[in-house]
């Protein structure tokens, strides 16, 4: 029996326009009315969730790809890099003049370019850019001509007395394998074509889901999850029911229990009806 439903945000809960469909909001309210928990599982920071999600009270939030987990506003799990790990990352970023951003649960340090790209309205604009946009070329230009380029830029940043939970690195999809080979001691996950998220080894959305399961005395078999990108694969494989959105990456669809419609239509609502968590008669109220 499904007792909790968790959703990725970008490409799942949110449309390309950065909105949430009314049918999805209706579905989540209906789930909670039945006593089913609703949660988020995202690579995003818990500091600034997209505006459309502020109108719903999620029971649990897995953020930074599992390094921070909260249940009803209580932090139940936190993972962070060691100083040695941060020094290793910073050394590579300084030597190769990369654009990177370090996140704590309260703030962020590093690349203005990435911070700008993560702002709400710019993030909405980026979803409209064509797939052929050469992100590798853009990364190369930023390496060569960044106005913030200076010696030991990141080494100085990671000396701050804070606990860093996640790092985001501007990185084209073609570079993913090279970055994974460079840092086998970390988890390297991708949720978009512009950057990769770097977190401590063994931490991911699946481990975050397990933290919630342990805290609530549930089993992973009690969870249904929705996702669309590579950083959703492990939790989709682990959950009792793993649903891939119609717009999901091919590798995500291959491992999912069910493929529903896209985030641009009523994909979430329809999957919940399919698995009988919502009644068919509720369809007439969706938009």
TrEMBL record:
This is Cof-like hydrolase. One of its GO terms (cellular component) is cytosol. PANTHER family: PHOSPHATASE YKRA-RELATED, PHOSPHOSERINE PHOSPHATASE. One of its GO terms (molecular function) is phosphatase activity. Gene3D superfamilies: 3.30.1240.10, HAD superfamily/HAD-like. Keywords: Hydrolase.
């Amino acid at each position: 029996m499904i007792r909790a439903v968790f959703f990725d945000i970008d490409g799942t809960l949110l449309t390309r326009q950065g909105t949430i469909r009314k049918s999805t909001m209706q579905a989540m309210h209906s789930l909670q009315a039945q006593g089913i928990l609703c949660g988020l599982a995202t690579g995003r920071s818990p500091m600034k969730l997209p505006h459309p999600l502020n109108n719903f009270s999620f029971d649990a939030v897995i953020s930074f790809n599992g390094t921070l987990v909260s249940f009803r506003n209580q932090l139940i799990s936190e993972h962070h890099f060691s100083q040695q790990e941060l020094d290793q990352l910073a050394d590579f970023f300084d030597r190769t003049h990369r654009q990177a951003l370090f996140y704590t649960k309260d703030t962020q340090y590093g690349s203005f370019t990435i911070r700008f790209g993560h702002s709400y309205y710019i993030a909405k604009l980026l979803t409209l850019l064509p797939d052929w946009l050469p992100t590798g070329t853009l990364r190369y230009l930023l390496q060569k001509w960044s106005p913030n380029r200076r010696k030991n830029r990141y080494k100085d940043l990671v000396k701050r007395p804070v606990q860093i939970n996640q790092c985001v690195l501007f990185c084209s999809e073609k570079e993913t394998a090279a970055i994974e080979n460079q840092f086998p001691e970390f988890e390297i996950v991708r949720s978009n074509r512009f950057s990769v998220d770097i977190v401590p080894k063994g931490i991911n959305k699946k481990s975050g889901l397990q933290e919630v399961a342990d805290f609530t005395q549930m089993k992973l078999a009690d969870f249904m999850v929705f996702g669309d990108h590579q950083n959703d694969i492990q939790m989709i494989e682990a959950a009792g029911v793993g649903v891939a959105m119609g717009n999901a990456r091919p590798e995500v669809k291959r491992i999912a229990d069910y493929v529903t419609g896209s985030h641009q239509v009523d994909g979430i609502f329809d999957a919940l009806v399919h698995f009988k968590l919502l009644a068919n008669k509720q369809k007439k109220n969706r938009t």
